[in-house]
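Help wanted!
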Amino acid sequence: MIYTVTINPSIDYIVQLKELTLGEVNRMDYDNKLPGGKGINVSRILKELGHDNVALGFLGGFTGQFVKDALEKTGLKTNFTPIQDDTRINVKIKAQDETEINGRGPKLTQDEIDAFTAQFDKLTEDDVVVFAGSLVPSLNEDFYFDLIKVIRSKGAQFVIDTTGESLRKTLEQKPLVVKPNNHELAELFGVKFDCIADIVKYGRKLLDMGAQNVLVSMAGDGGLMITKDGVWRSLAPKGTVVNSVGAGDSMLAGFVGTYANTKDPIEAFHYGLASGSATAFSEDLATREKIEEIYAQITIDEYKD
Ligand SMILES: Nc1ncnc2c1ncn2[C@@H]1O[C@H](COP(=O)(O)OP(=O)(O)OP(=O)(O)O)[C@@H](O)[C@H]1O
Ligand SMILES: O=P(O)(O)OC[C@@]1(O)O[C@H](CO)[C@@H](O)[C@@H]1O
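Answered by r_m:
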């Protein structure tokens, strides 16, 4: 089974207006409330693609109830740990630019944390756990690292969408895949990339440091996949970008779901790219129909040094 973990879910409050003027009363043209959080987005795309999965994390208050109901309406399997405090609301303003204001997140009690962590004792080597998104203020990065140790001790695989030092620290536990974007990869090594060969060189370092597969997303320039068997590249398909929320999560979902079911990294990369671009071209996260349409437009070429 694939489990996604969203420690700090949200209601994504999408607000659209032609122009945002700071310091004035602005009126919305359109607004919408969506269940949000990176792991939840991964779960929603996994479900679209027909990959069985369960969304885990913490939900509380009227906002948490909204997220739970919205996910259950889609038929997604969830097993969120109930909490006393309210799940956060993240504001996504789509005006002349896209501006995001994300909440800090709720307080968790020790009993709530213990109830959540107990679930990981049941994992087996057939399971994959995907961690995505920020932690709540009362937890630090060690929370992820400690859970990852438990997951690996059960023989299960893990994926964590993180950057910087916490990415470096998780590599020794051999994540199934890491997915920095090209800027995050450059920052991790304190370098600047001038060409694809530079990106490949530093992507290979992540393999050497423990990652099983490396995806480097490059927004409108597509992506690269680096594995021990070779390097593959794809240009992004053409389309109108209407949404930058969740493209990275969708890419991760397309890759992880396909890889878990086929063990074919090239097919997984293909679905990862298609899912990322399909979401970038959609108002909300992509539908399966859109992902398949984009999939058919993508070609993947082997990259030779
Ligand atoms: N302008 C675009 N045109 C086509 N595809 C895109 C575009 N932007 C993003 N994508 C698709 O989404 C994938 C992930 O995008 P990106 O590189 O921005 O990841 P990210 O930085 O992790 O995203 P996020 O902002 O969601 O965290 C890309 O590899 C690509 O497939
Ligand atoms: O504050 P975090 O956890 O880093 O990011 C949360 C978030 O911005 O990420 C998702 C898009 O990737 C949104 O659904 C959600 O609001």
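OP: Thanks! One thing I noticed: The longest helix spans residues 247-262.
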